[in-house]
UniProtKB/TrEMBL annotation:
Organism: Flavobacterium micromati
Protein name: Lipocalin-like domain-containing protein
Domain Lipocalin-like: 35-109
Region forming the signal peptide: 1-21
Keyword hit for Signal: yes
């Protein structure tokens, strides 16, 4: 009898302590509405950037994202991003995105005509320093066993 009770207690604790997925929380509509519009990445910064190359979103070197344009539509959580920097491969793609109640920005880069539910890989970034004209997305990467912040600085485009 003691074993049965112990197993039940352990099972309850395991389910109660289960972490919540970034996609299973509700959305932060206020933060999403503030992001609506056209934006440009003005800088990408991280410690050791002069020595370390970061492959952002498995698409291109992080430096290729400086000057990239992003359009966010808040009522349907869709948009478009485009890399246009000289000396970098041109790239444009539809995206889906949302901001959850934990202050996390959830992003999926789609292929043309592809539905978001068919895309298995996405990115969860921190949203910080949000104003009417700027915000930051912060990605965490592992550099030599130490977690390092990569900060993408967005500026509003008129």
């Amino acid at each position: 009898m003691k074993k049965v009770i112990l197993i039940c207690v352990v099972a309850v604790l395991m389910f109660a302590c289960k972490s919540q997925s970034a996609t299973s929380t509700s959305t932060d509509r206020k933060a999403q509405i503030a992001i609506k519009g056209n934006w440009e990445i003005s800088s990408v910064t991280y410690p050791g950037s002069q020595y370390i190359k970061v492959n952002t979103f498995q698409l291109a070197d992080s430096e290729c994202f400086v000057g990239s344009t992003w359009k966010f539509v808040s009522n349907n959580n869709k948009g478009v991003m485009a890399l246009t920097k000289a000396d970098c491969a041109a790239f444009s793609s539809p995206i889906t995105w949302f901001v959850n109640d934990n202050g996390q920005f959830v992003l999926k880069v789609l292929s043309a005509g592809e539905k978001a539910k068919k895309v298995r890989d996405g990115y969860v970034l921190g949203l910080a320093n949000q104003t009417e004209t700027s915000f930051q997305l912060i990605d965490k990467i592992d550099v030599g066993g130490k977690m390092t912040d990569v900060v993408y600085q967005f500026q509003k485009v008129n």
